Predict the structure.
Amino acid sequence: MKKLIYILFSVLLTVCSNVLLSACSDEPSVAPGHADGVPMRFEATVIDAPHSRATVLDVHDNYITHDFKVGDSFGLFIIDGDGNFVTLIDGHNAKNIKLTTPDGKAWNLNSDIKEVVHKSGYKYVAYYPYSESFNGCNSVGDIMALLTAPPIDQSSQQATDWMYTAATAPGTNAVTVLEFVHRYAKIDIYNSFTQDHNNNWDTKFPYTKTVDENGVEHYRYIVDAASPTTMSVHGTYSIGNDLTGIKQFTYDFDDVAIENGRHSIVYTYRMDERCAVDLGLPSGIRWSPINLGTETASYMDEAAIAAAGNMLGPRLAWGELLPKDTYNYASYINDPYNETASSLLPADIAGTVYDPAKQYWGGHWTLPNATDLQEFIDNTEIVKTETVYSSELGTEITKTTFRSKINGKEITLLANGYAFNSSVTQNAYMFYMSSTRSGYAYCAILTNNTSLKTSSTYRYLGFNIRPVLKELYTYTYADKKSIIVSNINDLAVDLGITKTVTEGGESVTYKLLWSPFNYGVEAKTNLLTYNAKPIDENAFIDKCYLLQGMRLCWGATEEPEYFDTAEYKSSAIAAKYNYNNTASTDLDTRDLQQEDDIVRLNWPDGWCIPTAKDLQLLVNNTTITKETIDGHTWFRLTASNGNSIIIPGTGYIDDNKDKEKKEVWGSETYLQSSTIGLPGSKPTLYALRISSASKGSLANTAGRPTGLMVRPVRYVRVE
């Protein structure tokens, strides 16, 4: 297998945006004598000086686009004919004028100034990104003095990328081109081989290291290299384990040329991820244009990819990393009929040490799973078949072109057969490996044997591999919570329940609308997509319906690691609400104050933890039936209007400090109220109990330290 490091320097980074500063027609040229000035329009261009690359490297010159992102801004200064900054326009501050892009393309003035005009002798200077710290600048020298090195800690991978322009005279047709150049060199190194990886990179430059969700190491340098300097990149890594065999690799590159005015990106991947084909698939997964093992030792341009598109590459058995002479049970690393069940390989080897795509290409490359294969089948169509000669098989084979039904992009696959014992058979058909195990002895494959489909066959056979690119993106709790909060009012379920209360001496009627799921389900939902695919909010909400939600003790505003009566007894919340309550409480009393009601704190106005009376009205006005979903007990509460909500059987958790914390399912459920329970020697609350043996009832002695679920209710006033 060939090793490869790509060092990519941008020679010319060009972003042209029509920066429209006023709604005016272009003048044929700038008129120096124009009394009121000529309204200006700007185009921004990012220019990098030519570079001298390291002679020891096989480097492919490539453009790296600097796309402005939504919300990006740059600062603009106007220099008058005497060389001074213009300070006022129409009585408004004219220094450090902020221009912002709402879409990464167009630009708008983000200041009190309505338009920027050109007058005789005016020039312009700008910098990126905008900062209010430049407000006090009185000269170009002041601006340059503030373009200081960004912080060493770039762990967010959002490094400040200072760029600036020289003083620029206006162009013709009232268009001025602002040419930005980089103040520093930013070097990003992505190392995908984290198994026993050691790097020996230059320490004379400070850098920040982070590791992403896929285990890919990110190293970021910010270097002031006004004069060309060099850095060195060395490292060792290994792949495999005792089953697959361990293989070691090294990389050694000296004198990598670094200079201000470019982005330098160093890959230690052996297949450039930019080569992946985006077929517009719903998952966001991108497919490699070539088979594993057909890549070259240098950057693959279109011609190289086209040539490799006729090559099959090595054949591997499922879970193995090295090709071999014989493919059968006797030579396989894991005979499912002779080995114990505990020694079986994982049900899905994607991203593991048994995944050849991940191990050899690294980065975000992986084997496709069975679902990925089906997605490919469902979203492509065959548009061409042709015959090509395979030097590896010494015969002609069929090459099939697939076109995306979504975006029209194309990809080719080869008829390849599979290896059995010491020969290749069935080479009239395609057989491509997936990461999915299907039964003890089988794995899922993509084949067109009789028809294009996913099928299963023996894992010990030798298959070619077509990797896919899956850059995992996991949505944070805050992301998921915002989806719930923004949609919860529309999701509220009307069960036809109302109640009338006295407020300020008058009777007020409220309709009670119920949440379709327990509070905090978003915290339990594993929401991820590939390649930053936009979130499908409906799919996310559908997942939330069948989850338990957060388990909370009474008055808690976050989910605890465990439940402990002694700790609760000494807590501030217990003291605040009188641990040993002695007074009786009306069922409709909202004892839990707003600052301790997790629903009122985090959901829109009107949502809250229900009172005991609310829960009683819920069971009195619905019919309860028991259902089994995924082997667990659920209770459906159906109203006379036909609407219903479904509640999981979660039981309760008492003291579990010394026990393993796990999801608890049961044959009954308890839901918290905001109402304190009957007086006694223990802290109690009213809770709704639903069991398989009876209709729901109001329990009056549930423990406040106990872990119970919350089903929010929304109060909507009936006018």
Remarks:
- The first strand starts at residue 6 and ends at 9.
- The longest helix spans residues 477-491.
